[in-house]
Amino acid sequence: MKKEANQKHCFIIGSKGIPARYGGLETFVEKLTQYKTSSTIQYHIARMGTRDFQYEYNKARCFNLSVPRIGPAKAVYYDLKALQRCIDYCRARPFIKKPVFYILACRIGPFIGCYKKQIEKLGGMLYVNPDGHEWMRQKWSLPVRRYWKVSEQLMVRSADLIICDNKNIETYIQSTYKRYRPRTVYIAYGADLSPSALSDDDHRLTKWYERRNLRKKEYYLVVARFVPENSFEVVIREFMASETEKDLAVITTENHKFAMQLEKRLHYSRDKRIKFVGTVYDQELLKKIRENAYAYLHGHSVGGTNPSLIEALAGTDLNLLLNVRFNREVGENAVLYWNRKQGSLSRLINRIEKMNEEEIKQLGKRAKKRVAGHYTWEKICGEYETLFLDGETIKQET
After folding, report:
1. Which residues, in sequence order, are CB contacts of 194 under 8 Å at separation 6+?
2. For the residues 347-362, what does the mean pLDDT come to?
3. Among candidates 30, 70, 64, 71, which has minimal Cα distance to 48?
4. How far apart are the first and last CA of the chain?
5. What's the chain look like in SS3?
């Protein structure tokens, strides 16, 4: 108990938990625990599941919470249950001083008021990561989008600190909610610059290529959730219009409704170059697939610093990004840009097919330099540790 009493207790709420299988928030939480250097910090990580139990992972105390299948409200229920569980844990241990409750995403705004009062009684602090513009995502109905917007507002109003992984998100929070005088800080998302442990003749890689009829440097790559705001319609339409003989490998989640809509509009199944190849949970394999891609296509239009983009910059030499402010902040001059206008991406694809190896190599070097300078997990996790340990200073300044 003495050791636990001398620690800084940080409760992370809002991810599906670790070990991470898929998803940006889950990867972030895993890396945060993996790269922890301070023996003073004790992380407590909530995990969504079907039954309640506790376990240790990366020296973090993880607790699994059973969550009923109640549709879109499932995530809200999970966040509320996890937050209350963390508060109760601190109440039962009065030696825990000034705990930090870090909530990822703004799902529980309408309910946060009563929880904030409980946190204040503990002498704790409420940190919030707004993640991205969830209220803009087309997958949500209009009432759900309105809920997200109101929830974001209430989370910002109640938070002691807003942690933004993108400078444009920070600017948005400061300008939109300036009446609340929000305290914000920018800490980016991270990526691993080390090359894949797999060789080009590794059985896992060659088997994956064989099943999908793909070859090294003979495919363009997309890694993204299969949702409209990731510009799949534009990417597929423009790829079909391009002159490339290479394939388009799409690593994505299932969404049969959206797939049928795109097929009806584009008839992409007639183009043998376009290949939906499912998901890849093996991180070393996914890293190798990125390294061997001729180019990476990034069409995300909503959100902050997207994890798949950072990972692409770390592994793929040629990166073609949708020209929006979130992506420009990350890519700067290490990538090439396209817009949604007809012909923009197809012309870019035709142009890069004529680039020589040295031009491609130089872009790749710039991309890796960009990641090495701003987005390494060592840097990101170190900044978080400093922030968690200096939390009381932030509270006094607010």
Report:
1. none
2. 96
3. 64
4. 32
5. CHHHHCCEEEEEECCCCCCCCCCHHHHHHHHHHHCCCCCCEEEEEEEEECCCEEEEECCEEEEEEECCCCHHHHHHHHHHHHHHHHHHHHHCCCCCCCCEEEEECCCCHHHHHHHHHHHHHCCCEEEEECCCCHHHCCCCCHHHHHHHHHHHHHHHHHCCEEEECCHHHHHHHHHHCHHHCCCEEECCCCECCCCCCCCCCCHHHHHHHHHHCCCCCCEEEEECCCCHHHCHHHHHHHHHHCCCCCEEEEECCCCHHHHHHHHHHHCHHHCCCEEECCCCCCHHHHHHHHHHCCEEEECCCCCCCCHHHHHHHHHCCCEEEECCHHHHHHHHHHCEEECCCCCHHHHHHHHHCCCCHHHHHHHHHHHHHHHHHHCEHHHHHHHHHHHHHCHHHHHHHC
Beta bridge partners of 376: 191
Distance between CA atoms of 190 and 311, rounded to whole angstroms? 8
Give this prediction's pTM.
Answer: 0.88
CB 394 within 8 A of CB 160: yes
CB count in 10 Å sphere of residue 108: 24
Residues 46/57, Cβ–Cβ less than 8 Å: no
Contact yes or no for 31/190 (Cβ under 8 A):
yes
Q: For 8-43, write each residue's pLDDT tens digit.
A: 999 999 999 999 876 788 989 999 999 999 999 999
Give the β-pairing of 247-251 and 274-276. Answer: parallel
Confidence bin at 145 (pLDDT 50/70/90) = confident
According to DSSP, the residues that pair with 234 across neighbouring strands are none
CA-based diameter of the chain, in Å?
A: 67
The rounded distance, in Å, linking the Cα atoms of 355 and 365 is 15
Chain-centre distance for alpha carbon 71: 22
| pLDDT at position 5 | 65
With 90 as the cut, is the pLDDT of residue 339 above it?
yes
- Residue 178 pLDDT grade (very low, low, confident, very high; cuts 50, 70, 90): very high
Rg over CA atoms, the chain: 22
Q: How far apart are CA 332 and CA 272, in angstroms?
A: 33
Spatial contact of 154 and 112, defined as CB atoms under 8 Å apart: yes
